[in-house]
């Protein structure tokens, strides 16, 4: 494997699969924060200590296989070009914070479900991504990887406080559980404005598509836990499962109500967005995300037929600035990206429509 293996395709293997409740829940993620015993945290460690951690993981884990997850490849941030880093962030394989780390690295599994970030905010951050609503399954995979690592290294752990981390908010289990949800109906009916404060009061947090500090582009929200101390991993996941299940029902109810009370207006919005994507010559990221959200809602409600959700998943990634520039072979100005983005969307939708027509002709 090489870096190109991870950046050449817009969709990771897990993104191509249909998970439970995948019309609303795009993905489930478990992240475990860990630090090595007797080594200073990344906020204070030396360059020599940082390099030693990477060398340790390169020796102990690169090329080794975890059952069901495949082999792992080490990617050192110092050897990755800025555009390539951006692509890895856009695919959710690494965090924006890791791209800025002077001695950062990442172990990536072949199927891209698991990412082990090194020398980010903590020495080790294990991330497992599953399609749809599968938090429990993602936790099992994360614990499997965690045990695999702990067989070879000693973690910083306190009997009283649990796993020790750079940020006090992660002390305890070191667990961050999150789901990525597409909630267009709750946004259109403005119910989201009262739902978010209610979620925050439950000890959960609502963020944008790329986590802390990012926007909820395309009506996509990330829901995650805030509390890691004083609760077991099972309880944290179960609490989030309960809230997500309620959100799914509320979104479905809002979709039914919208379709029943404003069918023409909703269909008009969906088809206008589809028309923009199919015919635009320039389009910005925000408008792209909004239109893709509308079209995906139209697919889920049966308004638009013959178009796959996976095409929209692919376009959500392909139209990000990093991917556009990576495929273009260099840095593009903003207006150049808008032109390339529009051309890519038109071509991708044309291919999909041609494929559907050919299938109809053979039936």
TrEMBL record:
A motif (RDXXRA motif of the pArg binding pocket involved in allosteric regulation) lies at residues 337-342. GO terms for molecular function: ATP binding; creatine kinase activity; protein arginine kinase activity. It is an enzyme of class 2 (transferase). Residues 24-254 form the Phosphagen kinase C-terminal domain. GO terms for cellular component: extracellular space. PROSITE patterns: PHOSPHAGEN_KINASE, PHOSPHAGEN_KINASE_C. ATP binds at residues 27-31, 92, 125, 176-180, 207-212. It catalyses: L-arginyl-[protein] + ATP = N(omega)-phospho-L-arginyl-[protein] + ADP + H(+). Its EC number is 2.7.14.1. Keywords: Allosteric enzyme, ATP-binding, Kinase, Nucleotide-binding, Transferase. It comes from the Bacteria. Pfam families: ATP-gua_Ptrans. The keyword Nucleotide-binding applies. Belongs to the ATP:guanido phosphotransferase family. Catalyzes the specific phosphorylation of arginine residues in a large number of proteins. Is part of the bacterial stress response system. Protein arginine phosphorylation has a physiologically important role and is involved in the regulation of many critical cellular processes, such as protein homeostasis, motility, competence, and stringent and stress responses, by regulating gene expression and protein activity. This is Protein-arginine kinase. It comes from Bacillus sonorensis L12. The gene is mcsB.
